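Homework-ish question, so no full write-ups if that breaks the rules, but can someone show me the predicted structure for this set?
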Amino acid sequence: MKENFAISVRELTKRFNDFTAVNAITFDVKQGEIFGFLGANGAGKTTAMRMLCGLSFPTSGQAMVAGYDLYQDAEKIKKSIGYMSQKFSLYEDLTIRENIRFYGGIYGLSDHEIKTKTETLVHQLHLEEQLNKLVKSLPLGWKQKLSFSVAMIHQPKIVFLDEPTGGVDPVTRREFWTLIYEAASQGTTVFVTTHYMDEAEYCDRVSIMVDGRIDALDTPLELKRKFNAPSMEEVFVQLARKAKRTE
Amino acid sequence: MIAVKVDSVKKTFKAEKSVVTALQQINFDVSKGELFGLIGPDGAGKTTLFRILTTLMLADEGTASVDGFDVVRDYKEIRKRVGYMPGRFSLYQDLTVEENLSFFATLFNTSLEENYDLVKAIYQQIEPFKKRRAGALSGGMKQKLALSCALIHRPSVLFLDEPTTGVDAVSRKEFWELLRDLQKHQITIIVSTPYMDEASLCDRVALMQNGKIMEINSPKGITENFKKPLWAVRGENMYQLMQTLQASEVIDSCYPFGQYHHVTFTDAIPDSQVASELAKIAPVTEVKKIPATIEDCFMELMRQ
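A: Not a homework solution, just the prediction itself:
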């Protein structure tokens, strides 16, 4: 496996009894790349993502994440990555300041670092006025943007985003992608799942999982050419319709 | 004939120190047999509206009726006639598929057999799992079971709160095909969704944001109301292109849409000069005039 890959996966497999959730997937993600990880519900995305985050042990295969081996250094992987999902974002009954302080503390930032981080982050998101308000009082769009920034608080090499824009209004959804572009342009690798097929077009490369396998992996442009489809939605539908699993 | 009527409905919630307006002055009618969509992001007020129409919550002001019955005075009558699928899965997790269905059928004094023609298309997809407990079903299967339960008493109006949220593109397509089939049974359907592309599958839609309806029309009517010419633009570096265009005074709006940016100009420019005008601002590789999508219209309305 080469050094300059942020994620390098070979024949990675996860079985639950006789059910193969993830079936020998192989792929590399370059540093600073925006990598779209697509698949139908039940195709195995979440299981694969949990393994890459060091939260679930593979049945077989190999993977290097942020330069660490999944089997040897799962704890080091956890420290080198950020993670954000739609469901688990922030503590609703802590203020914005407290959430930042809490996550900064978890990732071992010093008091001084937390202080400067809080300032820059709040300034970036124009949240100065809201700093001492409870997170639950924020509109969803702001919560999601804040949640992303908090996932990036320890400047991780890779950030995993699990459906970060679900339910968000179309303008905020695009502002969110601006944050993703900015993070990627500064060298952070972005690994993202989404059900919005237009968002798949924003990715440098996209993989599509079907029944635990990766059935397609390329740039959106190449995928559309290969499948002779006008949009990523078409590509996705063509592939996902082949699925035999009933989830 | 009008199936659902909403007249000046207002609803506020008291939070710790502030008052949140969930719905302000909502008005609309839905005709019998219509597939009507409430399109908007989280926090638009869609769920609150559903809860008022299904008699689970009282409005502060205004009136509403379902099937000609008042939501306050005739709530018992309405409950017999509507089917409601809440956004959160609300069936009994420790009952099997079969048990859930027969439970809801019994509540309404009916049986699966009696209404089999109506639920058949949906139920057949979950029938292989009928002995499985609802809690152990996958997301897509839960959704189909919930829809079957909401239909078991042959409702005249069906309320579906975000049935496709978090569902993949293929399952979403299939779900909308099911709804189209249900329409043939003369059921009025009100469905909410945050996915703008689903608006085109409804007969009419209300675009909602922050407790207000910004526009009600047929999907075609909404996109035709987009006044400015809209251009799809591509360049080598899309992120940079977006930043440059958004900063330019010549450009009124620029939003990324998949592989293109959608762009409008501040002042009217002849079509033939658009490419050269854009070239003055940033390097572009492709420019074409396009019809607006619902999402373009939604974002334009949000700016007003």
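Now go work out the reasoning yourself. Hint: Residues 170-185 of chain A form the longest helix (16 residues).
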